[in-house]
Amino acid sequence: MKVFVTRRIPDVGLTKIAAAAEMDLWEDRLPPPREELLRRVVGCHGVLTLLTETVDAEFFDAAGPQLRVVSNFAVGYNNIDVAEARRRGIQVGHTPGVLTDATADMAVTLMLAAARRIVESVDDVRAGKWLTWEPLGYIGQDLVGRTLGIVGMGRIGTAVARRCRFGWNMKILYHDRHANEEAERELAAKRVSFDELLARSDFVSVHTDLNETTRGLFDADAFSKMKPTAVFVNTARGPIHREADLAEALRNGSIFAAGLDVTDPEPISPDSPLLSLPNCTICPHIASATVSSRNGMADIAADNLIAGLRGEPLRCPVP
Ligand code: DGY
Are residues 82 and 121 in the same domain? Predict the structure, then answer.
């Protein structure tokens, strides 16, 4: 069996894959260019992909009819045309669960960093602009007792809510297609409409997947409904917020600050208006970047790939 692995992942995954199949590994730090990707998947029975690879009909055509499985090294799988894969009988796997805590920690880190103006302060210290202790300098927002609005109350959203409920006694609102009874019971979380969540929340944190209903969900209209003291956090997918609208909301004071682990495109364009805004904290999509999360992702992704090669049910198939 022949497989292509589109980037070096932790050894725990590579060792398993190399023992089970003939592995072609893309060693570069950057993703394979599209043409190279389409060339390398020819004749493969399985491919391990990252969120940087678009897996669509063209990809499947290039690979050929023997392709059995695509194993995504991510919990999100918006880079894959799952319906097209199903039509062709190709299994698709992802890596849920193992990055829940790391991603929730990242969302809370961004909430705190944005609310307390950490990056702006650090930048000033480094630039020699720390002049004195100022009674009115670097004033931010508190978390204790405030209201957190979670958009997408799945595993990660619930983990963020739990931290905020038990850490800072925050009130929890959420917006989701489905009721989350466990969160309602355990965290006194209340399910509300999107508009009510925007109007009442002091912190809004995004944890939904990217799909046609969430693309551009946070646009000028949404930001205009938020409190001027609100902090917006996105650790899910960049296209869920509209960059130009967010920049304008941060510039004109419609909202207080933003913390982003995701942008559109990635990496962020050097011309992005967000880069020059002191009230926007941006990280390079690192929420799952902890030893245990990345090892866990490698382990699941390898198991998914190997099961798919054998024609067995995957450990974690996409739903
Ligand atoms: C995912 O898994 O979907 C993250 O965005 C990367 O870890």
Answer: no
